[in-house]
């Protein structure tokens, strides 16, 4: 398959290198376009008020891989690749492997998910891949699963256009308990900002906080309640795959508001 790979941790991050090299060695045609530095938690931001530059990168990836470092956001990278750098569209857009989980409501801020979502907006099936640890450094099990998943999609394409948000626990491949299709959970925080004082006596704030992972997501009118939640299954060493879409319309809300009569 022809694959486009990006991320938000930067082009020198070990996660993207492991992913790209593993898929290239499996026989796929791989192109990498990734930020030239870490651009985590940038959401779906685009660069509008300055030029975007991209430089060819050599000696970082497998010799069969074409790679560019872009000074824009993750979404910039995929948009630039699809409209300016690639000769033809890829079969699949992948983003990752991210250092840290992208589960629950955190996906709304995630540059990793947004890069994959940019592919989806352009009509290309996409996968966002994350390793659910900020300290674990072995990305090979997650890359091995990505290879399995890409092979699966080559044989049995996704029936409808969607983004697969994949989170892989930080364990060895034999320790993985399996794969579960999940729904998006809710991640909320307490003590979100740490108030500090600099050496000149001025106050500043550092975004931090403790994660509350067990917040139950609102009930959906269209989803069976027995579908497990992403933040739960990864604790039991299951790989979580949550199908996502870019249409944020709340269908239940349309039903709830159908009787409204608003006079101007």
User: How many DSSP E strands?
Assistant: 13
CATH-level-2 architecture of the largest domain: 3-Layer(aba) Sandwich
What composes the largest sheet? 9 strands, mixed
What's the assembly state of these chains?
single chain
**Coarse morphology:** globular
Structural class: alpha/beta
Number of domains: 2
The overall average pLDDT, rounded, is 91
How would you sum up this structure, described in words?
The protein is an alpha/beta fold. The protein has 2 domains: 2-183 and 221-248, Stationary-phase Survival Protein Sure Homolog, Chain: A (3-Layer(aba) Sandwich); 188-215, no CATH class. It contains 6 helices and 13 strands. It has helices spanning 14-25, 74-85, 111-121, 140-155, 230-233, 251-256, and strands spanning 2-6, 29-35, 54-56, 66-70, 92-99, 126-131, 163-168, 178-181, 186-190, 193-197, 203-207, 210-215, 238-244. Strands 3-4-2-1-5-6-7-13-8 form a 9-stranded mixed beta sheet, sandwiched between helices. The chain has a two-stranded antiparallel sheet with strand order 9-12. It is globular.
């Amino acid at each position: 398959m022809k694959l486009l790979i990006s991320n938000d941790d930067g082009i020198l991050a070990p996660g993207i290198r492991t992913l790209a090299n593993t898929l290239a060695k499996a026989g796929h045609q791989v192109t990498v376009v990734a930020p030239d530095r870490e651009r985590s938690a940038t959401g779906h931001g685009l660069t509008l008020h300055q030029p975007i530059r991209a430089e060819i990168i050599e000696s970082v990836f497998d010799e069969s891989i074409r790679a560019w470092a872009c000074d824009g956001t993750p979404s910039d990278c995929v948009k630039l690749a699809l409209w300016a750098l690639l000769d033809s569209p890829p079969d699949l857009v992948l983003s990752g492997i991210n250092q840290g989980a992208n589960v629950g409501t955190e996906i709304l801020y995630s540059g990793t998910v947004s890069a994959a979502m940019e592919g989806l907006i352009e009509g290309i099936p996409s996968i966002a891949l994350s390793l659910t640890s900020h300290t674990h450094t072995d990305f090979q099990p997650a890359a091995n699963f990505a290879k399995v998943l890409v092979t699966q999609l080559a044989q049995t394409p996704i029936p409808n256009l969607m983004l697969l948000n994949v989170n892989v626990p930080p364990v060895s491949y034999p320790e993985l308990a399996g794969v579960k299709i999940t729904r998006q959970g809710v991640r909320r925080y307490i003590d979100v900002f740490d108030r500090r004082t600099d050496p000149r006596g001025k106050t500043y704030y550092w975004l931090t906080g403790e994660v509350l992972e067990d917040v139950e997501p609102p009930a959906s009118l269209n989803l069976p309640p027995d579908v497990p939640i992403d933040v739960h299954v990864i604790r039991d060493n299951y790989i979580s795959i949550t199908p996502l879409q870019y249409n944020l319309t709340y269908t239940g809300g349309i039903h709830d508001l159908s009787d409204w009569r608003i006079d101007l």
